[in-house]
Amino acid sequence: MTYKNKLFTILLLVLAVGLFAKLDIPEPIGFVNDFANVLSEETVIRINDWCIELKEKTDVELAIGTFASIGTMDEKDFAVKAFEQWKVGNKKDEGILIIMGLKERRIRIEVGYGCEPYITDSYASRVFREMAGMLTKGSEDWDGAFTQGSLMLISAVAKEKGVTITGVSDFSQGKSTKKSDDDGGGAVLVVLFIIFIFLVILTRGKILLWLWAAANTGGGPGRGGFGGGGSSGGSSSSGGFGGFGGFGGFGGGRSGGGGAGGGF
What we know:
- This protein has about 260 residues and is α/β, with parallel strands linked by helices.
- About 50% of the residues lie in helices and about 10% in strands.
- It has a domain at about 30-175: Roll (Diaminopimelate Epimerase, Chain A, domain 1), CATH 3.10.310.
- The chain has helices at about 5-25, 40-60, 75-85, 120-135, 140-160, 170-200, 205-215; strands spanning about 30-35, 60-65, 95-100, 105-110, 255-264.
- Helix 2 (about 40-60) packs parallel to helix 5 (about 140-160).
- Residues about 20-25, about 175-185 and about 220-245 have low confidence and may be disordered.
């Protein structure tokens, strides 16, 4: 075999590998495609229902694909191929795809041309960082990461389109309210402690004697303290849409490389 024939054979093999690589991306079964089996059924149904309602109210499509491996491709190239193969988005290419390679520990948020004005690279990067923060090796919160990523993207689209997605605001508020309550309670305790120290200094310690006397005579504030504060837990709603509705076939599938991603 001559050198030219060898080179031609190698090029054919490279092209063949490239063609078969596309076949390794399975066809979608819905908006949420957990091929890596990392998500709970409850999370899959919840996010899928949000995506169905988002599609019905805005025509924008959000799709998710988790894969046991993305092979030798980097996450960006894999996401672009999946985006094109699955035809994510509408005629205006308003579509968003989140892919995750489990073996490679890589995530990519790929944004279609039509969504780039309001799902910017910086916002996609923020979503990625939020997700990656929940996926520390050995203590991965897969449900939390993909729920949070979906919430951030769906909320941004809903705000841009002027619609409300059932359960999204309740779920996100439920998560953030607890954090807000905890932070507020800590700040109040710090302020009260500073005031107490100031009074001790101002009275040269006499306030301690007064408090001790009040406690032993039954005076002063009664028992019972401040009472326990209840935390508000968000609940998700399927919104009545149910099922694992498909997507694509509406002229979508084009992305210009916008988005963000990396390792986790």
